[in-house]
Fold these 3 entries.
Entry 1:
Amino acid sequence: MSNIRRQSIISSVVIYIGFTVGLLNIYLFTKQGLFTDPQFGLYNAFIAIATTMMAFASLAMPSYINKFFPYYKDHLSPKKNDMITWALVVSSIGYLLVVIAGIILRILSSGNTLSILPR
């Protein structure tokens, strides 16, 4: 069996296991009376918002690392390969931008700037 075929079968199994865990998670949250419908909706909204914020904050650095790391690894010595450093710096800048946007949106939505800031 070729290496690519074996990896795709393993990947498919891992994905199906993930779907099964997610299905079990949702089943237990809804059927056991742990959450009411509005609480479960709020839980899902938090998950969706957090995923979106993570996507904006990372500024596509995971894709950048996956695409270019093999090239940099093969063509540069480990001391000259600063790609991971740049990815961390850019992701940190993205995180700060998301935090600043959150603070600005919180101030704009409340209308009172003094009560927003932590003491």
Entry 2:
Amino acid sequence: MSEWVQLGDKAHCRFGDKGDTGLFVVVPYEAGDFEALAATLTPERVGQHLGGLPAEWVTCRPCPGLGAIVIAVRSSLGGGVTASLALDAHGKTLSGYLLGMRVLLERQKISLHQR
């Protein structure tokens, strides 16, 4: 069974920048949600959620050893924090915006033997 949930209900996120590249690190609250979130956070879906950015600008890299998904978005900060005229040049509110993304997750059935 699948359900639509807000990403922020299943994970937290930190944002950083390097030049004109925004870097999101998405960490599921529950380790069991890692694979499902890694499968649903695709360059196409993330780019669409972030205002229709081309999927070629977005890289989603699952890091199972860290239990995190690293998302790099190139050319996303208006030239970088020192060149951008954006009110939020560092993009700190972008992590909150990403957490508003709706994701489809598979709900696992728990059998009586797994309790």
Entry 3:
Amino acid sequence: MKLLNSLINLNNNFVSFFKYIASGLLVFIGLLIFVDIILREGFNRTIIGVPEIVANFVVIIAFMQFAYSISVKGMLRSDLLINTMPKSISIYFETLANILGVLFFALLAWASYDSMIQSFLSSEFEGHPEFQFPTLPVKSTIFIFSCFSSLTYTLCTIKDLMDYKFSGKGEHN
């Protein structure tokens, strides 16, 4: 149990760190959009590539925050339904939801791996000729944070089952 708590704390610290990085990126793209609007409306100029930067950074920000949302049990779940059930029943639903989360993010990581490697090997870019954004940061973020999201769901599942077992409610009478 001590090892599990250490792993959970390490994972939570890691995903919390990236939550702040994602927040910083969100401020950056907000300022970028603001400056682009001011330049466009006030000086009839624009910053080339803002739509590409924003589109790619939104994906990066979302994936950086998934694992944190999972660790604080903030992902999609029906607290109203689960909280009204007895713990002996709700543990099955929570475990099923966690296992589905593990599978979803593991499959997403698996599906994005080849694309990430291909992007690295071919130095792939997207965008128009005046501004091209490399695809590797986005594809590697999807892969890496899908892995961490799957790991976080796994740790949550194990912790929920251990807490249930050691609370005395998991014993058969």
